[in-house]
Amino acid sequence: MKILLIEDEPAMLDNMVKSLTGEKYVVETATTFRAAMDKIHVYDYDCILLDISLPDGNGLVLLEELKALDAAQSVIIVSARDSVDDRVAGLNLGADDYLPKPFHMAELHARVKSVLRRRKFEGSRIIEINNLRVDPEERAVHVNDQLLLLSRKEYDILLYFISNRNRLVSKTALGEHVWGDQIDEVDSFDFIYSQIKNLRKKLKEHGAQLEIQAIYGIGYKLLLA
């Protein structure tokens, strides 16, 4: 899962990045209103953690822009401004949650998991597709009740396909989501092909009733058997 953290306080930013990456999220950051605006126009995220008090703009304007873009990502406002007016304004503009500072990282993780379940997996803690079962919180995958051992990136790729099961996924979108915006610096997608090849092989060997189908020249799509 890919998170955009919009926060201008260096110590808070560093603590949140370390904590979230420790939970195996792909985390990108923006410390200014302008940098955040640029990112939401270029990249897709599963969840945005938004400080509304930014040095060069109001984070609530970013919420308005996300609404105009019809963006599907979850938004949690993380702010020292704990007024009722700010909460109401943020929620009315489409924020999924509001977490006042200071907070414990355990609460942040719980809030993120909760909004991701609601947005991506219809509120379910366990995802079941035919004979495959995924527990996102434990990062565990079972096929016919047998544990399927996946590398971190293989798991991230599978979860991305599951959360976009009705969509055609381009190689670029997949790379940006699983590897972050550093994907822009690579010369080829060979490492993505390798990860998908290994994942498809493991799914087939374990008899998973789904398939990642390559669409020549475009990308991939998850098909159910």
From TrEMBL:
Pfam families xrefs: Response_reg, Trans_reg_C
Response regulatory domain boundaries: 2-116
Protein name: DNA-binding response regulator, OmpR family, contains REC and winged-helix (WHTH) domain
GO BP of this protein: regulation of DNA-templated transcription
PROSITE patterns according to UniProt: OMPR_PHOB, RESPONSE_REGULATORY
GO (cellular component) term, any one: cytosol
PANTHER family from the UniProt entry: REGULATOR OF RPOS (PTHR48111)
Superkingdom of origin: Bacteria
UniProt DNA-binding region: 124-224
GO molecular function per UniProt: phosphorelay response regulator activity; transcription cis-regulatory region binding
OmpR/PhoB-type domain ranges (all copies): 124-224
Keyword flag Phosphoprotein: yes
Sites of 4-aspartylphosphate modification: 51
InterPro entries, alphabetized: CheY-like_superfamily, OmpR/PhoB-type_DNA-bd, Sig_transdc_resp-reg_receiver, WalR-like, WH-like_DNA-bd_sf
Keywords from the named record: DNA-binding, Phosphoprotein, Transcription, Transcription regulation, Two-component regulatory system
